[in-house]
Amino acid sequence: MDDENALELLQRYRRDRRVLLDFILSGSLIKKVVMPPGAVTLDDVDLDQVSVDYVLNCAKRSSLLELSEAIRDYHDHTGLPQMDYVEIFPPVAVSTPTPVFAPSPVVSNLSRSESFDSTHEKELTVDDIDDFEDDDDSAALEGFRSKRTLNDASDLAVKLPSFSTGLTDDDLRETAYEILLACAGATGGLIVPSKEKKKEKRSSLIRKLGRSKTGSVVSQSQSAPGLVGLLETMRVQMEISEVMDIRTRQGLLNALVGKVGKRMDTLLIPLELLCCISRSEFSDKKAFIRWQKRQLKVLEEGLVNHPAVGFGESGRKTNELRILLAKIEESEFLPSSNGELQRTECLRSLREIAIPLAERPARGDLTGEICHWADGYHFNVRLYEKLLLSVFDMLDEGKLTEEVEEILELLKSTWRVLGITETIHHTCYAWILFRQYVITSELGLLLHAIEQLKKIPLMEQRGQHERLNLKSLHSKVEGEHDMSFLQSFLTPIQRWADKQLGDYHLQFNEGPTIMEKIVAVAMITRRLLLEEPETTMHSLPISDRDQIEIYISSSIKNAFARTLQVVERADVSHEHHLTLLAEELKKLLKKDSGTFMPILSQRHPQATVVSASLVHKLYGHRLKPFVDGAEHLTEDVISVFPEAESLEQFIMALITSSCQEENAEILCKKLNLYEIEEKSGTLVLRWVNSQLGRILGWVERAIQQESWDPISPQQRHASSIVEVYRIVEETVDQFFALKVPMRFTELNCLFRGIDNALQVYANNAVNDLASKEDLTPPVPILTRYKKEVGIKAFVKKELFDARMPEEPTRTNEISVLATSTLCVQLNTLYYAISHLNKLEDSIWERWTSKRSQEKLIKKSLDKSKSFPQKDTFDGSRKAINAAMDRICEYAGTKIIFRDLRVPFIDNLYKPSVSASRMDALIEPLDMELSQLCDIVVEPLRDRIVTSLLQASLDGLLRVILDGGPSRVFFPGDAKLLEEDLDVLKEFFISGGDGLPRGVVENQIARVRHVIKLHGYETRELIEDLKSASGMEMQGGKSKLGADSKTLLRILCHRSDSEASLFLKKQYKIPKSSA
User: What's the angle, vertex CA 716, arms to CA 710 and CA 722, rounded to 5?
Assistant: First the structure.
């Protein structure tokens, strides 16, 4: 409501102001009112721009009032016209006469009047104001234009020579509009609006700002349909004042007077306007001089400076023409009578020279009545450019106006005058659209530009006349080669696109949509330029793939350089700059492959390979000095190597994913690999070897200091093995904490080192154990029963060593470990082998996890699959098992042959079997067995008890086969021996709580066979011994299944004269002393 009240109040103030001024000026308060130039009555004056203070001062003094001075005073005191009320509120619905003389403010927007490649700046003064009658509306228009950020388009300046006459963009724009009016007049569409109709029109600003409910600009043709309305739209679009429009229309119509049958578009327009428009039609002299100077410049540029057709015999007249142009310009500074006379005569002479020049033979394929005054193609296309600029919306530079199709159709009428063809039109229009896209970043304009580029025909699609015409269009620009028409317009587009795509990571960081279109622009312009003369195309690559590779190479290098700068400026106190660089490059490649490569791969299937390979190479140059200088696993090495390897693997994954596996393998081999694993492996091996040396030294010290006491009743192993595993596991943890790349070689080295350390531990654990031979007493010499019975000898053979055995004193000299110590050793070794499996599984699990995290692509690098995962500690397993077996054997032998030697080895079956039975040994044997079972861990009990069983059987065989001269056996003792063996068997079976019956039976089978032999008669044994001697020569045994040594020993212990005599005759065995 407040805004509406303010609007009503403002409208009331304006109406009251105009009524009061009209009353003062019409009444007798003013002595005389002098109208400004061009105004007849007060209706022709815009009272809003008359200074009230100036009028009141004149009324007070009763002096002459010059309205032009009142208007000038209004603007001098207010600066620029106060148009804010128009910008804020809708136009006043009161018919306001359109001012024909109001000074124009300085307009800062150059989007219409100047080319985007123009650097010309023009300063306006108060003297220049009258030539911009309607441009006061433009100042208000600026407030309604879209607040769009405009970009620099200087790189897109078309490659055309500059004008020697100094023609400005405003000059070209106004001349282009004059040509448009002339061409429209050729169709009868040129009408000069009357003053009454002008009064009824809304102001041009109101028309420009009038919007429908949907917010779109109201079409200008709605107020005046057909060609008339379209020309009015063009006038507004090209920012031509109504005064200039009317003046030009009237001049063109006057030029046709007396020229019956002459088309308006065949007139030499600048000359005709010079002849038909006089000084009196301008508000002041300076405006006329400026207008006339423009026309003279246009004549010189069009007819003389850039001729498309040679002058021939009329060439000498060009100098005369220049002289006449200079005299016409000079005439304005002569006294009025002389100046007018000189101007008239010069114009007459100018017509005589200019008309023949303009009517030379036609250009290209253009025929008919054509006046070639706008000659030289670059002059033509610069004029056509100004016409094409009218297709853009005045309120939003990034949009096309609603009447674009009608405007383009209207512009075709100028083609005859300007020598425009379809190819030239599409090329110019594409350049205009593309340049406007660059300025506004509006995607719609880019799409229109691509559409126009696609309409430009290739060489083979052009007609003969078109090819000849284009071939003739060349221009020479300083710093450039002689350029054809297409090169002049498309080369800037091509270079701009190349520059953008040469750093697409920076230019298209927001998204790939625009990039895809720019690639299309680059490829289309490139294809068109490739057909142009090779003299200027030597720098273009041969194929699209080559061009794409250039884009990728350039952009990757630029992105790499930027990334390197960022990394080098970053704080590297925590991470090495090569680590940060690898991380950033991986991010770069991820975005590259996900955003840009899908676009570039459409034109280069291996774009991803090119990109990834170049990043690999660039980073490799930076990495190589670091890798070469790495000697130890420092913090920097541990930081850089994993990221470098990860980057390389990511690059290889990209290459593999972008092409077939066979090709990927070939492409990956072409990479100069960083060889991080090899270098890292060497450093890791050094570290592993140093750690393993430390472990080995510690193991040896731990063994030397070990007392073999159990840690606790529950932990019945020694503490040294716990310490060994602790240091081993610490080393393994440190190994896997090294995040550097590794091969299986390093892991295998770790395995072998640990394996060797545990072997050393196992071997050292049994180093102090005496051998079985040291524990067992010497075997007595064989003797025979002392009573002899004669028997014929048949063979003489010695099967025994008659030397006396050593005294049994060795067992007292050697250090024999206690049974409890042996049990702790056994438990310790069992702890070692049981934890070995856990250690091995843990290492393999962590290794597998490490390899999977590295996501290796190179199959050849992962050779761990060829190694069985359960053989890695075979050496230590065998060593530990062998040590355990030795301890078990030692413990059994020690108990039977040393601890129980007296009751078992020395006294069993003495003096006879019946007098000393096995039952007497069960109690001491049970005590020893209980001690073993109390200390040895459960899983080892059967193993140690089996060893005790084996030692017991060895002791029993020792007694019945090598019992010495004090032991004799009769065949009837076999039954008793059998019973004793069963007693021993049941003791170890222990009613099912001991060893398995089958195990015991298998063990005692060998003893049972010997006892069975004791039951045979002497004659049978002798006969079997005789046969056994011959059978053993042939590798067999006797019929009783015994070897000769066993049979001989049984006979030596036989209480029988026959046996004694046989042994004496055949083996010379001495007689027993017992």
Answer: 75
3 state SS of 474: strand
Is there a contact between 962 and 805 (Cβ–Cβ < 8 Å)?
A: no
Strand 64-66 vs strand 32-34: parallel, antiparallel, or unpaired? parallel
Residues 189/413, Cβ–Cβ less than 8 Å: no
Are 374 and 302 a contacting pair, CB within 8 Å?
yes
- Give yes or no for a contact between 487 and 532, defined as CB atoms under 8 angstroms apart: yes
Q: What is the pLDDT at residue 209?
A: 42
> Could you give the CA distance from residue 181 to residue 272 in angstroms, rounded to a whole number?
13
User: Residues 36, 71: contact at Cβ < 8 Å?
Assistant: yes
Confidence at 178, pLDDT banded by 50, 70, 90: very high
Residue length of the chain = 1074
**Among 580, 564, 579, which residue's Cα sits nearest to residue 638?**
579
Name residue 797's amino acid.
K
Tokens representing 629? 């200088």
For residues 762 and 757, give the distance between their C-alpha atoms in angstroms, rounded to a whole number: 9
Helix axes 317-331, 285-300, angle to 10 degrees: 170
CA–CA gap between residue 425 and residue 446 (Å, rounded) = 17
**Beta-carbon contacts of residue 587 (< 8 Å; ≥ 6 apart):** none
Q: Please report, as a single letter, which amino acid is at residue 137.
A: D
**Preceding peptide of 161 cis, ω within 30°:** no
Instruction: Give the containing element (helix H, strand E) for 475.
Output: strand 474-476
**pLDDT band at residue 787 under the 50/70/90 scheme:** low
Cβ-contact 527, 521 below 8 angstroms: no
The pLDDT, as a whole number, for residue 143 is: 52
pLDDT at 539: 59
Of residues 201 and 842, more confidently modeled = 842
Q: What is the mean pLDDT of the chain?
A: 78
Rounded to whole angstroms, how far apart are CA atoms 532 and 43? 61
Give SS3 for 633: coil
Tokens of 8: 């009503």
Q: Are 593 and 654 in contact (CB under 8 A)?
A: yes
Based on the number of CB atoms within 10 Å of its own CB, is 557 exposed (0-12), middle (13-18) or buried (19 or more)? Answer: middle
Q: Residue 66 carries which DSSP code?
A: E
User: What six digits make up the tokens of 1?
Assistant: 């409501």
Whole-angstrom CA distances from 728 to 733, 735, 831 are 9, 10, 14
Cα 933 to Cα 826, 930, 941, 946: the distances in Å are 12, 5, 6, 12
Average pLDDT on 411-433 reads: 90
333, 335, 336, 342: CA torsion to nearest 10: -70
496 near 478, Cβ under 8 Å?
no
Alpha-helical runs (H) found in 776-902: 810-813, 819-854, 874-894
Determine the Cα–Cα distance for residues 274 and 99; give it in Å rounded to an integer: 25
Structure token pair of residue 873: 């500690």
251, 276 in Cβ contact below 8 A?
yes
In the chain the first and final C-alpha atoms are separated, in Å, by 148
DSSP-derived letter for residue 80 is S
**Residue 239: both structure tokens together:** 């920012």
Using DSSP's 3-state secondary structure scheme, residue 969 falls into strand
Distance between CA atoms of 657 and 664, rounded to whole angstroms? 8
Query: Are the beta carbons of 523 and 509 closer than 8 angstroms?
Result: no
Alpha helical stretches, state H, 738-802: 744-765, 772-775
Average pLDDT over every residue of 571-580:
81
- Comparing CA positions, the residue from 388, 434, 329, 377 lying closest to residue 173 is 388
More confident residue, 985 or 795: 985
3-class secondary structure, 400: strand
CA distance 728 to 779: 47
Distance CA 696, CA 688 (A): 12
Rounded distance, CA 252 to CA 267, Å?
Answer: 9
Give the C-alpha separation, 1010 to 820, whole Å: 34
